[in-house]
Amino acid sequence: TATAAPPGDKDVIVRLFQWNWPSVAKECKDFLGPRGVGGVHVSPPQEHIVRKDLGSPWWQDYQPVSYKIDSRRGDRAAFAAMVTACKSAGVKVYVDAVINHMAGQDVPGTGWAGSRYDHYSYPGVYADQDFHHCGRNGNDDIKNYFDRFEVQNCELVNLADLKTESEPVRNRIAGYLNDLLSLGVDGFRIDAAKHMPSADIGAIKAKLSRPAYVFQETTFAAGEPIVPDEYLPNGDVKVFAYGYDIARIFNHEKLSYLRTFGSSLPSNKAVVFTDNHDTQRGHPVLTHKDGGRYALANAFVLAWPYGTPQLMSSFEFGTTDQGPPSDADGRTKNATCFTDGWRCEHRWQVISNMIGFHNAVRGTNVNSWWDNGNDLITFGRGDKGYLVLNDEGSAVTGRSFRTPLPAGRYCDVIHGDFSGGKCSGPVYTVDGGGWFRADVAAHDAIALHANARV
Ligand code: LAG
Ligand code: CA
After folding, report:
1. What is the pLDDT of residues 368-427, one digit of tens each?
2. CA dist., res. 387 & res. 9, Å (int)
3. Is 345 a catalytic residue?
4. Residues 407-423: pLDDT tens digits?
5. Do residues 328 and 373 share a domain?
6. Does residue 454 form part of some domain?
7. What is the CATH number of the domain that holds 305?
8. Which of 61, 130, 191, 412 is catalytic?
9. Is ipTM strictly over 0.85?
């Protein structure tokens, strides 16, 4: 099965977690497009449950009630306008597709757009015969992740599990995805992919009206029988180990270990990330709460040639259930970067400028690796870029670094913005032998690249 190529020459994906459609549209035009971001991963657009009684938790959105495109983030018209705006800014739109299950509510209710539902009944969409009833564990819930049948046919936290092997169910799901394609979306993040046999996802993909980029949520823990590799025929896979490894190395080990960083999955099939909305709620990963260390980790992710980087853009939360800033009716408020809890990691100076580095070095190999055997690392990418990462507790002073760069004056995009031929931060002069001299503060970096020459 051919995978629609992501991206082209711009492959970075930004996850605007829970952003409403007008805010996504504006961000595509104001920032993502101009900064060279390839695609935006948006939160689920379909009608979902409403649990105002629980304070409208963010996870309402992962409990579909119908495939109407009408959610706390906006209606169909607002969604369509967002897609148009992003595409005209040169940013592809990837939809979070929740297709393994419907809602997990034991009592009947009314969804966001007014659809009535009961646990295994979604009038006009699905009825009881469309769901698995695995007959295990007393309540049909998944308990044993080491049992393939159970993981794919029982219920993930009580969520009504669709018979993705059934033709009518596949047709319904494909109908929803095709509706999104008709509005111009470019691809899908397949939610809970591990909970569906890979062949079921493949069969649904085969029903799509045109090629779409697919990346799959394939969580994995050692010893589990269902492995991410199984899902490669459908498209790309998310590499969860990557973010855990990054956190371990930055928190407890040595940056010099990054010299061979990656995973056993092929780089061109791997979507990599420091954190996502699930791992940042209670898993050992780096997040916006780690401040500078998070920025440095993402600088490495964007500079290193393994996988398609996905950047997280979060809202602050006290409890793990807390939803995004909302109005009295539960509509998500506009995302206003750096206020009202919107952290906008993708706009942090280091992270956003390293998107430009990533694009400038695309297609080149790592060279000139040098480390001090501990937390100071340096490497080049082709003759296009050079990164120094100093995570030592003390500054490196007056050191000469040998880069693969042609002679010239380069903007340090870690501390300065490059635009209109000017740099708002430090500029380093690389000589004819590729050398430049610099001081690097503790827990700091320098990044030079071909598209930021002064
Ligand atoms: C995912 N990827 O494969 C999402 O990234 C993840 O965030 C989703 O879980 C999950 N799959 C299902 O789409 C989230 C929350 C869960 C939440 C679930 C459904 O992490 O905590 O479950 O969405 O809303 C919640 C309650 C459960 C309850 C369930 C059903 O936390 O206690 O049993 O709803 O009512
Ligand atoms: Ca399933």
Report:
1. 999 999 999 999 999 999 999 999 999 999 999 999 999 999 999 999 999 999 999 999
2. 21
3. no
4. 999 999 999 999 999 99
5. no
6. no
7. 3.20.20.80
8. 191
9. yes
